[in-house]
Each structure stands twice: as C-alpha cells, then as structure tokens.
Design a protein that fits this description.
This protein has 252 residues and is an alpha+beta fold. It is built from 12 helices and 7 strands. A hairpin with an 8-residue loop joins strand 5 and strand 6.
Length: 252
C-alpha cells in the first residue's frame, strides 16, 4: 500500500510488486516497508517527499578500494558487473577448501551434520551426529534460519530464529533449440497479476553467451519460481514432483 498511495496503482503493480517478488520472494502487501525500503521511509520523513529525497541523495559510484591485484584492477577498468566460473559456482568453494586444507591451525570436518549447539559463555559447544562435542570461542553460521533454530533448540535465540519466515524458491533451467537470443539484458521480474508462480526470468544466453553450446543455435533461460506462493502451486518444496512443476509452468 505504501507505493500505491504515493505513486498510484501502476507503479505498485509494475515496479514494487515484481521487485519484492524477484528480490525477496514475497508479497509486497505483507512486507514492512520500513524493513524493506528504509531509505525511502527515512527520505520521505526528512524531505517530506520521496522524489525530493531521491534527487538530493543521488547514489554515487562506489569508490574503488581494491589493491594492485591484477584481477581486481581488470574488473574495475573493464567495467565488469558480473563474472562466471568455467566449471560453475562450485569452483569457488572448492578453491577455498583447497587453500584452507593447506593452512595451519585449520581442521575441516566433512559429512558431519550439526546436531546441537550449546551456548554457555564464554564457550560454545557444537555436537555433531557422531556425538563428539567440539568446543570453540566463536561460531560463524552459514545455515538458513530454520536449520540454525533446530541446532539452537534449547537456546532463547533458537526460538526467535524459528519465527523467521522462510520462502522456498526453485530455479528451472530451460534451453530452446534453433532459437537465437538477441535481447541484451540481465532478465526480467514478473508481476503477480501475470503469472504468480514465476517470480522472474534470467536471460542466461545474454549474460554468459560463452556457456551456450556450439553444436547448435540455442537460447538458455532460468526461471525463478515459487517463493511465498510455492506451496500453493507446487506443494511441499521437499517432496514436490518435477512433472508437476513442468505442468504448472506451461499451463499458467
């Protein structure tokens, strides 16, 4: 309602709605504008107008803070906006893993799911499935909130983490033969009134054409689907049928 009251229905349906769907996988009508767009709320309060605030606070090009690293300098002066890896995103964590393996005072435990985390200042104890506790001073978690909540089930913070809403998003990769893709863009976000099941489309062939096959002419796209509407259209994310996803996408 924030955008609709200030800019009208078209802006709300064609800009704020697809932005919230594509970026946050959520319904713009259920989100708190102060949490999602705090700079707009603050700007309106300070300048009595969102437009005035945007004009007075134009976004400046971020200052380059890199060192003399050849790779960083090339990215800066060639104007890179995105990058890719020859063997996919998995190449990055594998490279980090190889470096850490050769580092002193680093222990890596693979195939060791965390069962429980106990916080007792000044020590934190991590218990894995094999039952062996590991004691540490600090923990940096990369788990999603619902998984971390299960590990911290006896802690007060675990109860707060379990209250965080988590929306499932699936990525469907498509390739069309004998079709050329001439549109130079990253992709597009889909308003909910067009196809609620699809949040956005990434134009893979436009972003990284070098990844297209050389055997035939093709067009590659990636569809982001689900979000807040995942269960409604596809059922449970952990057990949904791929054939159902395919059918839903082509019949919407």
């Amino acid at each position: 309602m924030f955008f609709k009251r200030r800019f009208g229905r078209d802006i709300a349906e064609l800009i704020s709605d697809p932005m919230c769907r594509g970026i946050l996988a959520s319904d713009s009508r259920t989100l708190g504008v102060s949490a999602v767009f705090p700079h707009l709320v603050k700007g309106e309060y300070e300048n009595q107008s969102i437009i005035k605030s945007m004009y007075r606070n134009k976004v400046k090009e971020p200052e380059f803070v890199g060192n003399s690293n050849e790779f960083a300098l090339k990215a800066k002066f060639d104007g890179w906006r995105m990058m890719n890896f020859n063997h996919g995103m998995e190449q990055l964590p594998r490279a980090i893993l190889n470096i850490l393996r050769d580092s002193p005072n680093v222990d890596i435990y693979e195939n060791s799911p965390v069962d429980h985390i106990s916080v007792r200042n000044p020590e934190v104890t991590v218990t894995v499935k094999d039952g062996k506790p590991r004691h540490c001073d600090y923990i940096v978690s990369a788990l999603p909130s619902f998984a971390l909540a299960r590990a911290l089930r006896d802690e007060q913070i675990g109860k707060h983490l379990s209250d965080i809403k988590f929306n499932d998003v699936a990525l469907v990769s498509l390739e069309f033969r004998d079709i050329s893709f001439d549109l130079q863009a990253f992709g597009c976000l889909i308003p909910s009134y067009e196809n609620p099941a699809v949040l956005g489309i990434i134009f893979d062939s436009a972003i990284f054409p070098e990844s297209d096959t050389t055997d035939y002419k093709s067009c590659r796209l990636s569809l982001m689907i689900g979000g807040e509407w995942f269960e409604k259209y596809f059922g449970d994310a952990q057990s949904c049928d791929q054939d159902l996803i395919r059918t839903m996408l082509w019949t919407q």
